[in-house]
Amino acid sequence: MPIRRTLLAAAALGALAAALPAHAQMELKLGHVGGPGSLFELSANEFARIANEKLAGKAKVVTFGSSQLGGDRELMQKLRLGTVDFAIPSSVMSSEVDAFGMFEMPYLVKNRQHMQKIEAEVVWPSLAPLAEAKGYKILAVWENGFRNITTNTKPIVKPADLAGMKLRVPQGKWRVKMFQAYGANPSPMALSEVFVALQTGVMDGQENPLTQIYSSKFQEVQKFLSMTGHVYTPAYLVSGARRFGSLPADVQAALAAAAKETQAYVYAQAAKLDDELLAKIKAAGVQVNEADKDAFIAASKAVYEEYAKEVPAGGALVDKAIALGKGM
After folding, report:
1. Where is the signal peptide (predicted)?
2. Residue-by-residue pLDDT tens, the chain, 328 positions
3. Which residues pair with 206 in a beta bridge?
4. Between the CA atoms of 275, 281, 287 and 293, what dihedral angle is there, to the nearest 10 degrees?
């Protein structure tokens, strides 16, 4: 009987082993806050496609949009803990690493060509090492976009039009300081909460790139879109430095290559969406107006001065970025 039991046990174990895969595929989770059709969703899915081709079964990137894995702050924490493998932060980077606040400075980045120069000469040599020291590994620079203001109260032409307005802003302190300088009453809030805040009147307006405005359906609860273009926000594909470093070298190489290859697609989609989405927002009944950008630039001086005083080497980084845009 003992022999028979041993044989039966061995047979059962053999059947169990046969039912299991030879090796479980490593799943790499990418979380972001973008809704369906947003530039974040398009970027994440394209990265996953390219990465999974390069990984060839060694691992698989799986994307989770619409804040399924948390808002920006939660995702940044999960990156450091290693419970999420990748995220696409934008403005929130300035709350994690002070120097990233340079991209919160109004009208700093002129266009995507200017941004690519800044990426090469400022982001990689100066900002990326600061992020890594805080536990974040930047794999690529992508895009969130040029930001514009939507409201339910009136068109915004000059900073004075924002006086006292309850305006949702993302979780980055320099955006708050900027709109305070313009006279508004800004409140940081997770993107997933903004639609209801606008719908119920808790907020009078918000500011975002067109892709976030449209994919979040703000055109359904806002009357005016003012083309201020006040800030260009890059987005970054980021991993936790410790988590990324723990991956096999060939997996790291495939992911890093895929991240950088995705940038061209991101910029092409962003340019395409700029035109398409403005037409769609107008068609939804939103009144669109141009803003007096010179008036906004003049009102932004104090924010630049405060950033230069508060952030070590911040003034030098901003000066370098401005110099890279001369003649563009």
Report:
1. 1-24
2. 444 454 444 444 444 444 434 457 899 999 999 999 999 999 999 999 999 999 999 999 999 999 999 999 999 999 999 999 999 999 999 999 999 999 999 999 999 999 999 999 999 999 999 999 999 999 999 999 999 999 999 999 999 999 999 999 998 889 999 999 999 999 999 999 999 999 999 999 999 999 999 999 999 999 999 999 999 999 999 999 999 999 999 999 999 999 999 999 999 999 999 989 999 999 999 999 999 999 999 999 999 999 999 999 999 999 999 999 999 9
3. 150, 168
4. -40
Are residues 127 and 103 in contact, defined by beta-carbon separation less than 8 angstroms? Answer: no
Which residue from 102, 130, 135, 123 is spatially nearest to 245, judged by alpha carbons? 135
E strands, 89-153, in order: 136-151
CA separation for the pair 239, 76 (Å, rounded):
9
Please tell us whether the domain made up of 24-324 is placed in CATH 3.90.1150.10.
no
Four-point Cα dihedral 318, 319, 323, 328, nearest 10: 40
Question: Can you give the pTM of this predicted structure?
Answer: 0.90
Inter-CA distances, 267 with 13, 127, 200, 254, 256, Å? 53, 21, 35, 21, 18
Q: In angstroms, rounded to a whole number, what is the distance separating the alpha carbons of residues 116 and 114?
A: 5
Write out the two tokens for 74: 């939660």
Place of tokens 């969703």: 41
327 contacts: CB under 8 Å, gap ≥ 6: none
Instruction: Count other C-beta atoms under 10 Å from residue 261's C-beta.
Output: 15
Domain extents in the chain = 24-324
* Rounded alpha-carbon distances, angstroms, from residue 66 to 30, 129, 170, 249: 12, 29, 15, 31
Tokens 């410790």, residue located: 242
